[in-house]
Design a protein that fits this description.
mainly alpha; 9 helices; two-stranded antiparallel sheet; Tetracycline Repressor, domain 2; 236 residues; 4 strands
């Protein structure tokens, strides 16, 4: 049941549910405006009041009721979307045991590039702050990289990608894939919209071939292509 508050000398009734809805709308406006500002100017160069609060129509008091400072807002934006990104990729990986490795890898890279198209401002935010002077941002990015490695390595083990079920090897593979994918994403994001349309399909094909072949070579493993090309890499 919602509680209610009646303001003195006013007939206005504010429910706790109404306050929650107002808070959510304020947060949504802050996120939308701040994403653009952070992507264009970077965290350090973004000024809280003129670049975020005034365009969002949010008072200083309302902002500090939700966030300690602009860095906390920056991290809240990244956290919300990084978690949704991981859920999307893990949904693809859950089907791996029943599908060929090439198909799963192709769909994974396609999903990543879709994320770039839809959330390019977030990519710019992360790229800008890899060498941030703010220790909280650097710590977040390290934790985020670690979360990706853990999520990917767990997916590889569950899907049967590594017959040996070697966790250390799965983590090594995840670290390499994460590094490779980050570079591929930055390259893709540097292209014009026309270049992306023309090159996207071939780019994904090349990424899949390079990734699967390169990983097998680096890890000292081979696959028998005459057998069912599922997520199984036999050890030499």
């Amino acid at each position: 049941m919602y509680s209610t508050t009646v303001s003195r000398n006013s007939s206005l009734v504010v429910t706790s549910g109404g306050r929650a809805a107002l808070r959510a709308r304020t947060r949504e406006r802050l996120f939308r405006v701040a994403r653009t500002a952070f992507a264009q100017k970077g965290l350090a160069a973004t000024n809280l009041k003129p670049d975020i609060l005034e365009p969002a129509g949010v008072s200083v008091g309302s902002f500090y009721h939700q966030f300690r400072d602009k860095t906390e807002l920056f991290l809240a934006i990244l956290t919300e979307h990084e978690e949704s990104f991981r859920r999307l990729l893990r949904a693809v990986h859950r089907l791996a045991a029943r599908r060929p490795a090439q198909e799963v890898a192709w769909q994974s890279f396609s999903t990543v590039l879709d994320m770039v198209e839809e959330h390019e401002d977030l990519l710019r935010m992360m790229a800008r702050e890899r060498e941030s002077h703010d220790p909280r941002v650097r710590a977040y990015l390290r934790r985020n990289d670690q979360a990706w490695v853990e999520a990917l390595s767990e997916d590889y083990l569950r899907s049967g990608l590594l017959v040996s079920k070697d966790r250390a090897r799965a983590r090594r593979m995840a670290e390499l894939v994460l590094t490779f994918t980050w570079g591929a994403v930055l390259r893709y994001s540097s292209w014009t919209p026309d270049e992306r349309r023309r090159r996207r399909l071939q780019w994904i094909d090349d990424l899949v071939a390079f990734c699967l072949g390169g990983m097998a070579a680096i890890l000292g493993e081979t696959r028998d292509s005459s057998q069912d090309p599922g997520w199984e890499i036999e050890e030499v």
